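Dear Dr. H.,

I hope your travels went smoothly. While you were away I took the liberty of generating a structure for the chain from your last submission, since the lab meeting agenda had it listed for discussion. I wanted you to have the full record in hand beforehand rather than looking at slides cold. The sequence, exactly as received, is reproduced here:
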Amino acid sequence: MKDANFLKANNARSIWHPMTAPADSMAQPPVILTGASGVRIKDIDGHEVVDAVGGLWNVNLGYSCQPVKDAIAAQLDALPYYSTFRGTSNDKVIELAEELRTFFEPDGLTRAFFTSGGSDSVETALKLARQYHKIRGEAGRIKFLSLKKGYHGTHFGGASVNGNANFRLAYEPLLPGCHHIPAPYTYRNPFNESDPAKLAGLCLAALEDEIAFQGAGTIAAFIMEPILGAGGVIPPHPSFMPGVEAICRKNGILLIADEVITAFGRTGAWTGSRLWGVKPDFSCTAKAITNAYFPFGAVMIAEGVAQVFEGDTSGKAAIGHGYTYSGHPVGAAAALACLAETKRLKVNENAAARGAELFAGIKSLMEQYELIGDVRGGHGLMVAMELVADRTTKKPADKAVTARVQETAYREGAMVRVSGPNIILSPPLVVTSADVQTILSALDAGLAAA
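The corresponding predicted structure, in token form, is as follows:
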């Protein structure tokens, strides 16, 4: 292994990092991480902190989950790879599909299509939604609706339904036929409405208006996160997602739940759809499905959609889509072990308890610091605070301020994530009360330094 001097000198020399400008990485080299244990990560200088980001929303079981590591090692010895394209399968992926069927059956989802990650899962669901309508003789249903502030990955399809200009402008023109409605974001919305229930109703009315404008017969699917994640942790009112489902059903539009973040316990419920009592047509998953130890994902498919595909004899249901690593046996083995450990530990229950503690702590910090304009959370370990230069005008805090909060918090013991003016917290679902207090203490120091 190269020494620390080599790694620091070449930190941004030959690598371009995602979600940042190459020049920024050169001017402000990224933190070099060299170790992790439990819910803590350690950098090249030996500084250890609680990972309040959870990797990237995905290390739900922490960094020392031995059953998943053991499953990966054993599968590498047994069958390190084979394709699941037409004509071949493997034992682990068959077993995993059955386990996922049981796990997602309360959501009405009974089939799995395997992918390499979250963006792949979104792309898959968008494609299958269009194909579903073509099989049924409604080839004109090609458009997609989604929420502003929503995040659905980085492929061209995902970027097209994304509701954040940061992930769109540099890559336009994107997929045609993608239209957005206002998100139920009480702090900032075009209706100037702060009441969550009233705002949900206004957004649902906007959805119905957009459907009428576009023509229901032209729309394939509506895609949404049960709780918006990267857009700044925006939980909708409990009436919102059920309202979306009802509107979709009335208009023959498929509902795609982007559960890449919310599945497997993060919201305090086993899935975000289950949290709101919704049964989607597709559910996109990845991230925590293998505890981040192996790139893997799955699109879960509703029984009714499955029957349309499986009952077709015309050839229209032949799926001309897939990935080299779809159903990778090592990923499947990792997912099996991860799912078993996720259920054994009942991480959804800990996420609910520790999330409530973290949310209360952040609200307490808001009383101390005018810098915090809004605090959002209340559903498991998904919490955010939005920093502002002025509470009255809601002018967002500038990058230098959020950077100081993040840097100081890191020095004081917690890695937190910055997304625009938001500080986002999504720690592993196995954090303890002591870990939560460390995160809060580090943020207190960061806010004081800003």
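Two observations you may find useful: Residues 224 and 257 are 5 Å apart (CA to CA). Residues 347-368 form the longest helix (22 residues).

With kind regards,
E. W.
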